Amino acid sequence: MFLGIDLGTSEVKLLLLDGSGQIVGAAGAALSLSSPQPLWSEQNSDDWWQATQAAVQQLRAAHPAAFAAVRGIGLSGQMHGAVLLDDSDAILRPAILWNDGRSHAQCEQLTAAAPRLHAIAGNLAMPGFTAPKLLWVKQHEPETFARVASVLLPKDWLRLQLTGDKVSDPSDAAGTLWLDVARRDWSDDLLAACGLTRAQMPRLVESNQASGVLKPELARAWGLGPEVVVAGGAGDNAASAIGIGATRPGDGFISLGTSGVLFVVNDRFSPNPASAVHAFCHALPTRWHQMSVMLSAASCFKWFSQLVGHDEAALLAELARNDSAVIRETGAPLFLPYLAGERTPHNDPFAPGVFHGLTAQTTRADCTYAVLEGVAFGLADGLDALRAAGTQVHQLSLVGGGSRSHFWAQLIADVLQVDIVLHTGSEAGGALGAARLGWLACGGAVDTVCTRPPVAALFSPDPQRHARLAPRLVRFRDLYRRLRGA
Ligand SMILES: Nc1ncnc2c1ncn2[C@@H]1O[C@H](COP(=O)(O)OP(=O)(O)O)[C@@H](O)[C@H]1O
Ligand SMILES: O=C(CO)[C@@H](O)[C@H](O)COP(=O)(O)O
């Protein structure tokens, strides 16, 4: 048995996988976000550990025999977050997350201070990345910065609780802006630009290699044997790729989680900062990937559902009951999904969320539709950015919580004009990939472990609907341009 632990933004998810690749069970525990000031997004790292332990107890209770047979653990997690520790590994401040926009000024400073940033890290400096956050802490919380002995990414802080080791992997480390992405090693020059050194960074191992073993006292408390291997693991998007078998160049998927991600595998480091796509290491040693990232995707649906007091399933059922789809596709309001600013393609922490074109006839179902459509339009921008970066896409799998909606999957296929494939277990996101990385670290072979799960549904583009939506996409893009800086 192999255990995957995915530290998402809205939930910690656990998944048990057996030695024939079948999912045995899953469990989860919710997490909340805090935004003490505009543009800020933080979580308490201790909450991650409490949620992980609660989910472990759920999974053990549901599958006692299978859980007791766990031999390998893999980690996956929300990327870019900064967990700052002092020299006794105590947490110095709340973790600053991937969707935090406070460090926009520091991005400019970093770009000026590190002229080779784009060549080494392969990416634009964006506020969500780890390096500009540390510059922000240096300038705004100098007492804290002076005490920083270690900087860990979210899943790597969980690993510290599990094994006592400070270790990261290249797929997650690439999101710091301190990694030499082609060489898959820390860059002393980029660290120096932030007043940091390699001594403050975790050791790096590849995602599919062992990083350490579970602490004996935890193994006993969880009813596990000795020598449970913990794999290097991966950033949640690279882990999701492993989960749906996206390992060959050209394989790609969309993740509809809190963020919205278009991810395509490359066989070499392929930076293209000009189009605001990310070029990072993949979770296999000879692979890299490009991705475009929306800061708010399924989280727009969650926000709207909480605003109107109906859950996502109820809103989708209401949408399905209404038979005026064509009228809605021409008359519904437009929605700009920039609830936390945007990365690809705008790199603009101040981009606003917007409902535009409300009338006295606008219904709740129209607004639900607009939210789902606005996210699909954001993905269309992301796909254009990937194409501008030289990546070709013909078919995309869909993963993450948003993949529960077939309506949304069809809408995305129609907007993007790309086949969208749903594999079984797709809503598990990074947790399945994490479990698979645990299996690889215990000696599993890539060809055996990283297979494509069975296809649950295929959504092919409808050209007529695409033609109806095309003018709305033009208006969507125009709306952002008109509002920029307003
Ligand atoms: N039936 C549904 N249809 C579409 N989206 C849904 C549905 N149920 C939940 N979601 C969305 O799934 C998202 C959570 O997805 P998840 O992949 O777990 O995110 P994360 O990894 O960021 O925590 C929430 O934003 C929620 O609105
Ligand atoms: O910042 C990125 C990728 O660059 C995000 O994809 C985070 O990794 C958060 O992921 P989810 O919680 O949405 O899965």
TrEMBL record:
The active site is at residue 236. One of its GO terms (biological process) is xylulose catabolic process. It catalyses: D-xylulose + ATP = D-xylulose 5-phosphate + ADP + H(+). InterPro entries: ATPase_NBD (IPR043129), Carb_kinase_FGGY (IPR000577), Carb_kinase_FGGY_CS (IPR018483), FGGY_C (IPR018485), FGGY_Carb_Kinase (IPR050406), FGGY_N (IPR018484), Xylulokinase (IPR006000). CDD domains: ASKHA_NBD_FGGY_EcXK-like (cd07808). It is an enzyme of class 2 (transferase). Pfam families: FGGY_C (PF02782), FGGY_N (PF00370). Gene3D superfamilies: 3.30.420.40. This is Xylulose kinase. It comes from Roseateles puraquae.
